[in-house]
Amino acid sequence: MKTVTLTVKKEPELYLECETLTPDAFAGKKADEIAKIPAYQGREDTTLGEYFSIAGQAGASAAETQIIINGDCSKMKYIGAKMSAGEMIVNSDTDMYTGGWMTGGKLVVKGNVHSFCGLGMEGGEFIIEGDAGNYLAASYRGDWRGMQGGVLRVKGNAGSDICTFMNGGEVIIEGNVDIHIGTHMEGGKIVVKGNANRRVGGQLVKGEIYVFGNINVMMPGFKHNRDVELEVDGTKAVFAEYLGDLGERHPKRKGETVYGKLYLKK
Amino acid sequence: MTKVVKDVICPFCGTLCDDVEITVSDDNKKIISVRNACAIGAEKFNHTSLPGRVTRPRMRQPDGTFKEVSYDEAVDWTAKTLVNARKTLMYGWASTSCQAMSVGHEIAEKIGGIVDNCATVCHGSSLIAIQDVGVPSCTLGEVKNRADRVIFWGCNPAHAHPRHMSRYSIFPRGFFTVKGHKGRKIYCVDCRYTDTARCADEFIQVQQGYDYELLNAFRTAARGEVLPDTVGGVPKEKIYEIVEELKGGRFGVIFFGMGLTHTMGRNHNIDIAIALTRDMNDFTKFNIMAMRGHWNVTGSGQVLAWQYGFPYAVDLSRRTKARYQTGETTSVDLLIRNEVDACFNIATDPGAHFPIDSVVSMSKKPTVTIDPHINMSTEISDLHIPVAMVGVEVGGCAYRMDNVPIETRKVVDPPDGMLTDVELLTKINERVDELMGAK
Ligand code: SF4
């Protein structure tokens, strides 16, 4: 695996859109070629070389490429978006759409990310060491496919509207979350190790949500089913299992109605 | 001699009343009286002859005062600002005609602007929900002629759309609703007792911020599932009772406003209200409609969606494609995050509606405001270009809140030499072409 190191040399005046900052776009390129890759600021076309100094070189394919980014990326959008393989380490906060629609590889952000990150993610591993904003692992506006696969872990807190329309994959939030978790969810798994504010599992069709801490207000469409002992992300405990959302439509399997499940740690 | 112009459209709120009668002086210059419109609608017509009306563009001077300039100078300054900026916020559009919007969008495409309308601080959340789950809706004519179950949820038409209740939703007698109010059951769901609640047969007081939970409870009850004892302060018996009444109606409609769109959860509240409407269609005919505020904000959504696929917050900055993301390309976020470097306001007053931080941000950027009157936005702008009032001094197409297009009418002449929105935007568009051609 070969490594390319990017260091921010100029802060964007507005916000820089760099959906080209992925192992896929870098594969097979040398530092001077990477510097010529386009980036955008409003209607102004620019290049990555304008904003980053670039060292090292990429591997022959995305899978053989590691990208390390240093410096302040808090005004950069789409970092690692649509990446399919390889590895990226961002030593900074990042802006919106980080890791959106990624299908493979590993992306680590050693800071906070803004909203709409991991949007419609299909595969790979995405680790956020700080906090995440709103709409994490949700769907793009109007789309009915949120996160579909892969693993997304947030070591800090996450905002509201996370995992909207999620239908696969796994999201683990080690801290707290705000309102509207897993709205319209049709599959996949959400683990919240801290507290959740309100509206957890609203309009939930299928899928599992685990909350280790408290939920401020429970949705009226959930009913207690039973208590079960489970191991969730390395923690063994007894969970109260709720079925829901009883106000929502639910598919049938072998004559039985399939409900979404909400587990609250006892 | 005076003359009376009949069937005038009121260009104030989304109800777009089409039965206003206006008496004008015989030289077509002055409105003498307004009949049939409500107080706020009449005031809009009377505004034409407000003393101190500005009739020529005003440019901010280094000492902070305004100086009158010619339309040509104003057009030149505006075009240069647009051409020099990397990302311009082009906000407003809700009180102008669809024809003006189409010229404005042409400019936006060329200069890579972001076109947003006041849905962004109003019914934008409804539009998100509609995009997510669709909308079973109808026209106001159908409501008048058929509706026998009417719910006002988080809206107060008694104040915001004064003639809505008498023309469409509560009192009128229609083809199948010959008994008028007596044949309808009216519900009002709100966190406080409003003047609309006063007209309702049933007032359901929901605890503030519990609309989503209450709507979820209605859906759960409709499916015959169990409920907790109270939801958002409403006892479960009441919820079951109302759901049965709704199922028993022939034609139901939910009207909703800011009480749903701008309380906790925003688009989710509308989303679940739409879901309830859809559920109700298993039992009877049910519809839902947003109480749109500005008279042609619906039109802006229509024109934008027709041209670019999105109803507001359309980002054309990449020019080869249109993008949209509430929270990113919406005006308030763009301003607070300083993501734009110029502002162009037309036919709406962000200075009055936006959070203060975004207004402060706007005041620090090159800003032009196109508006018939002096308002809060003109006062923080570098340039104010007054124009004729659409729907009063010039006609043009508008969309009513139920998405029905209505051609508004001209009743009086604008002050001498004053340009209309379409004329002004066409001049700016031509100047932009010249400047970009020279680049
Ligand atoms: S209800 Fe609205 S459209 Fe009708 S007269 Fe009043 S302000 Fe004008």
Low-confidence stretches of chain A: none
Biggest beta-sheet profile of chain A: 13 strands, mixed
Biggest interface reads: A-B, 36 and 43 residues
Q: How many beta-strand elements of chain B?
A: 21
Globally, the shape of chain A reads elongated
Measured between the Cα atoms of the first and last residue of chain B, the distance is 56 Å
> Which structural class best describes the helix and strand composition of chain A?
mainly beta
CATH fold field value of the largest domain in chain B: Rossmann fold
Could you give the order of strands across the largest sheet of chain A?
A: 5-1-6-8-9-10-11-12-13-15-21-18-17
Q: Residue-averaged pLDDT of chain B, rounded? A: 96
In CATH's first tier, which class of the largest domain in chain B applies?
Alpha Beta
Count of individual beta strands of chain A: 21
Low-confidence stretches of chain B: none
The sequence of SSEs of chain A as H and E is: EEHHEEHEEEEEEEEEEEEEEEEE
Radius of gyration of chain A: 20 Å
Please list the strands of the largest sheet of chain B in the order they lie side by side.
Answer: 5-4-19-18-17-6-7-15-16
Task: Kindly describe this structure.
Chain A has helices at residues 23-26, 31-34, 48-51; strands spanning 2-8, 16-17, 38-41, 44-47, 52-56, 65-70, 76-77, 87-90, 106-109, 125-128, 151-154, 167-173, 186-192, 196-198, 206-211, 215-217, 223-232, 235-244, 252-253, 256-257, 260-265. By secondary structure, chain A is mainly β. In chain A, the strands form 5 sheets. A 13-stranded mixed sheet of chain A has the order 5-1-6-8-9-10-11-12-13-15-21-18-17. The longest helix of chain A is centred in the first third of the chain and has 4 residues, at 23-26. Chain B is an alpha/beta fold. Chain B has 2 domains: 58-122 and 295-403 and 415-438, Rossmann fold, CATH 3.40.50.740; 124-290, Dimethylsulfoxide Reductase, domain 2, CATH 3.40.228.10. Chain B has 18 helices and 21 strands. Chain B has helices at residues 39-46, 71-84, 98-111, 124-133, 140-146, 157-160, 164-169, 195-199, 211-222, 236-247, 258-261, 267-280, 297-308, 331-336, 350-353, 356-363, 376-379, 421-438, and strands spanning 2-8, 20-25, 31-35, 58-60, 66-68, 88-92, 114-117, 149-153, 185-190, 202-205, 230-231, 234-235, 251-256, 285-290, 314-315, 323-324, 342-346, 367-370, 383-385, 396-399, 405-408. In chain B, helix 3 (98-111) crosses helix 13 (297-308) and helix 4 (124-133) crosses helix 12. Chain B is globular, with a radius of gyration of 23 Å. The A-B interface holds A 13-15, 17, 40-44, 96, 115-116, 134-135, 140-142, 144, 165, 179-180, 183-184, 198-199, 202-203, 217, 219-221, 223, 245-248 and B 85-87, 111-112, 128, 131-132, 210, 212-213, 216-220, 222-223, 225-228, 231, 264-265, 268, 271-272, 275, 279, 317-319, 324-328, 337-341. The structure holds iron/sulfur cluster. Residues 10, 12-13, 15-17, 37-38, 40-41, 161-163 of chain B line the site of iron/sulfur cluster.
